[in-house]
Specification:
The chain is α+β, with helices and mostly antiparallel strands. The protein folds into three domains: 169 residues, DNA ligase i, domain 1; 187 residues, 2-Layer Sandwich (D-amino Acid Aminotransferase, Chain A, domain 1), CATH 3.30.470.30; 124 residues, Beta Barrel (OB fold (Dihydrolipoamide Acetyltransferase, E2P)). The protein is built from 20 helices and 23 strands. The strands form four sheets. Strands 3, 4, 5, 6, 7, 8, 9, 10 and 11 form a nine-stranded mixed beta sheet that branches. A hairpin with an 8-residue loop joins β15 and β16. α10 packs parallel to α12. The longest helix is centred in the last third of the chain and has 20 residues. Bound molecules: adenosine monophosphate. Adenosine monophosphate binds next to β2.
Length: 582
């Protein structure tokens, strides 16, 4: 681990991206492939490759106790060190400087085995033992990195995309080829191995390994939404949970649904796999899981769907009370072929054909949903349903729009159908996994909302003095989290109570009235406007922020960035000027 820790320190010491890439490439070249490949996972700030569902299940509190214990200095000293560095890894390094062994007896592969064991172990006491044993074998700088990897972020300004670049540089491969292989495999370890053998062209899409989701950029208004491309496909923006469906086809009964964080979520929606199994060929769909009213053939609000989330087992009652559907809007793999490089209009054609290919016997293929196109004609889209007629998998209706007026009209229709707004997509665009570009635009009602992560919480006032109800939240600026505001309301009492328990268990530092917490809880916040402010590190403050909802489907990696905050601020300023002028 020594070489790893030294490289990580050098990478942290420079702000230059190219230099970071050079340092990691040099490390990869200097180590045996069996070590470099595992280190690639750790450099990406992960304990396991992206596609894996395993997690360490080690919370901040457990780490905190472990460090306090093995340093022999107790938790008060740790709190003081944490205040100095604002980071548990760095605080641990400081405290362990004198107690940790001067020479390491921990190798990269031993760290990987220790992570395997931690993931397998479910009791807290046993985890504590394993962690203590692990950290006792590490030197102080190594312990810092181990703790940071466990917390899910190495914080040395290295994202997986830079690790891809380092692999390309180390093994003299094209960056695009490395990116493509890593996207298909979802496994940076295997990507490195193939690059080292110059066999990246062998990387193949694997069914049941999720690939990254294509993301959308916000559009201000109908005019902007049509300004980036010539022909637009327009779909309703449904308010549910994004899910990638992998279907094995008639020779393989497996069906798996993956969330945006690439976790498997099929067990939460047991009614969907049987319907998805109707597709005769192996197939990967992109779509949204929605709470659905079969009576009105419309989506129910997200709050309904939320009742089904976070449960280990879904009761029969729940299945009846909150039926769900899978609204399919894209296809990524069909007919034995990866389709992401094909333009959307062609993918859409294949998607429609796939619905048509579902055999009629045993499954009822019915009209799932009706929408009006801008010319006033009704479009009926097919759905795969159950025997009693309730739809389960619906082809998302799509219409074309070429003027802001027609878009406005479709927008009103979408709102009337109870949906959030519209998605406007370039019909000629390929599917770009994991990227937020201007080929998919979202048009929502709020002027702007931000996805932020909670960094600190405070006890509430009045009747809320027993719950942690005031949240300070941050946006991301590369590897740093910068606070932009504080919000008091928006969640239900039940949610606040549940979050209070979570924050208690994931406190990094207890300052009495306030606790800094693990930055994991993502919120969507709306606000009236934005000001420049020296109160928060971001340099901005949101005015009258309101929590719209918890985004359990998003991880802290996916929150909005300081860049977006600046864009919204600039837009707001130019909007104000236009108003003055007008
Ligand atoms: P946001 O979560 O606000 O960044 O908006 C993007 C999300 O909208 C996607 O990740 C999907 O979960 C969701 N969505 C709803 N309807 C659609 C649609 N028709 N096409 C693509 N994404 C959609």
């Amino acid at each position: 681990m020594q070489a790893f820790a030294q490289t990580a320190d050098s990478v942290a010491a420079t702000t230059k991206k190219l230099e970071k890439v050079r340092l990691v490439a040099e490390y990869f070249r200097s180590r045996p492939v069996e070590e470099a490949d595992q280190a690639a996972v750790f450099f990406s700030g992960r304990a396991f490759p992206a596609w894996e569902e395993r997690t360490l299940q080690v919370g901040g509190t457990l780490l905190w106790h472990t460090v306090g214990e093995i340093s022999g200095k107790g938790e008060a000293a740790l709190t003081a060190a944490y205040r100095r560095y604002g980071d548990l890894g760095a605080a641990a390094q400081d405290l362990l400087e004198h107690t940790a062994p001067a020479r390491s007896s921990l190798s990269v592969s031993q760290l990987a085995s220790a992570f395997d064991e931690l993931a397998r172990t479910s009791t807290a006491a046993r985890k504590l033992n394993l962690l203590q044993d692990l950290l006792r074998r590490a030197t102080a700088p190594e312990a810092k990195d181990v703790i940071k990897i466990i917390s899910g972020d190495l914080r040395i300004g290295l994202r997986e995309s830079l690790v891809e670049e380092a692999i390309a540089k180390a093994f003299d491969e094209n960056v695009k080829t490395v990116q493509r292989a890593n996207m298909l495999l979802g496994d940076i370890r295997e990507t490195l191995r193939l690059a080292a053998e110059h066999k990246l062209d062998q990387a193949q899409m694997r069914l049941f390994h999720p690939i990254g989701f294509m993301l959308a950029s916000p559009a201000q208004d109908a005019e902007e939404a049509l300004s980036y491309f010539v022909r637009a496909a327009v779909e309703d923006k449904y308010d549910g949970i994004r899910a990638q469906a992998h279907v094995g086809g008639k020779d393989d009964p497996r069906v798996r649904l993956f969330s945006r964080t690439l976790d498997e979520i099929s067990p939460a929606f047991p009614e969907l796999p049987p319907a998805l199994r109707a597709f005769p060929e192996p197939f990967i769909l992109d779509g949204e899981i929605l709470a659905w009213s079969p009576d009105t053939a419309q989506a129910l609000p997200f709050s309904e769907l939320q009742k089904r989330l976070g449960r280990k087992k879904v009761s029969e009652d729940m299945l009846r009370q909150v039926p769900v559907v899978y609204m399919a809007f894209d296809v990524l793999y069909a007919g034995g072929e990866l389709l992401i490089e094909k333009p959307l209009e062609e993918r859409r054609r294949i998607l429609e054909q796939s619905f048509a290919s579902v055999p009629k016997d045993g499954f009822i293929v019915e009209h799932g949903m009706a929408t009006e196109n801008p010319q006033g004609a009704l479009i009926f889209e097919p759905a795969i349903g159950t025997r009693n007629g309730a739809p389960r998998v619906i082809l998302a209706p799509a219409v074309t729009a070429d003027s802001p007026e027609s878009l406005e009209e479709i927008f009103s229709g979408a709102r009337a159908r109870g949906n959030e707004g519209l998605m406007i997509k370039d019909v000629q665009s390929p599917y770009t996994p994991g990227r937020r570009g201007k080929s998919w635009l979202k048009l929502k009602k709020e002027l702007a909302t931000l996805d932020v992560v909670v960094t600190a919480v405070e006890w509430g006032h009045g009747k809320r003095n027993k719950v942690l109800s005031d949240y300070t939240f941050a946006v991301r600026d590369s590897d740093k989290l910068l606070n932009v505001g504080k919000a008091y309301s928006g969640l239900t009492d039940a949610e606040i109570a549940e979050m209070t328990e979570w924050f208690k268990a994931h406190t990094l530092e207890d300052q009495g009235f306030r606790r800094t917490v693990e930055p994991k809880i993502v919120l969507e916040v709306a606000f009236n406007n934005m000001m420049r402010s020296s109160r928060h590190e971001s340099g901005y403050a949101l005015r009258f922020p309101r929590i719209l909802r918890l985004r359990t489907d998003k991880s802290a990696d996916e929150i909005d960035t300081l860049e977006t905050v600046k864009e919204i601020f600039a837009r707001q300023a130019s909007g104000a000027k236009q108003k003055e002028a007008g």
